[in-house]
Amino acid sequence: MDKALKTMIDNMPDKTGKSLEAWKKLLKEKNFAKHGEAVKYLKTEHGVTHGFANTIVTLSKEDNQSAEDLVEVQYKGKENLVPMYDALIKFIKTLGSDVTITPKKGSVSIIRKRQFVLIKPATKTRIDLGFKLKDKPTNERLGDSGPFGTMCTHRVMISEDSDIDDELKSWILEAYNQSV
Q1: Where are the alpha helices (DSSP H) in 17-134?
Q2: How far apart are the first and last CA of the chain?
Q3: C-alpha pair distances (Å), 26 with each of 15, 22, 31, 79
Q4: From residue 163, how far is each of 2, 102, 127, 154, 159 by CA, in Å?
Q5: 145 phi/psi in degrees, rounded to 5
Q6: Other beta carbons within 10 Å of 119
Q7: What is the rounded CA–CA span in Å between residue 42 and residue 26?
Q8: Is there a contact between 96 and 129 (Cβ–Cβ < 8 Å)?
Q9: The pTM is what?
Q10: pLDDT digit string (tens) for 57-83?
C-alpha cells in the first residue's frame, strides 16, 4: 500500500470521526450508484473533506469487486484468452508462497517484494506479459516494455497456448528471482 494512502487511512478516525471500515459500512447501507453521489453525501452530510471523501468512496468500491470479478471483467469478450491466463497463473503459483497475485481493473500484478510480472489482456487475441528484468537485453520475442512504460522493462506477446513454453517460464522465474 502506498505510504501516503496508509497515513491517510491511519489518520481517518481523528480527521473524520470514523474509521475506514465504519465509513465503508455506512456507504454499503446507502448503496450509491455513482461515485460523485457518494462523495457529495460524505461532504454535505458528514462534513468530510473532499480528499477523504474521495478516498473512502474509492476504497469502498474496491471491496465490492472480488479478485475473481476483476479478472472476469478483464476477459469479458476475450474468453478465448482465459486458458492462457490460467496456465500463467498456475505456473506462477509454483514459484513460491511469497508470491502475491493482485488483480486490478485492467491487469493482474504479480508481486514478490515488488511487482515482477504484469498480465494484461491486450486485445481479443493476445495477452501482453510485462516483466521487470534488470540488464536483460531484448530480442525478437522478449521486446521492450512497449505500452507498459516504466512499470515493466520487457514485454512478451502471447497469442496461443504454445507461447507459454520453457523459455517464457525461464523469464518469469528470472524476474521472480530478481524481485527480492
Answers
A1: 20-30, 35-46, 50-64, 67-74, 82-92
A2: 17
A3: 17, 6, 9, 36
A4: 34, 23, 10, 16, 7
A5: -65, -20
A6: 23
A7: 10
A8: no
A9: 0.65
A10: 888 876 555 666 778 889 999 999 999
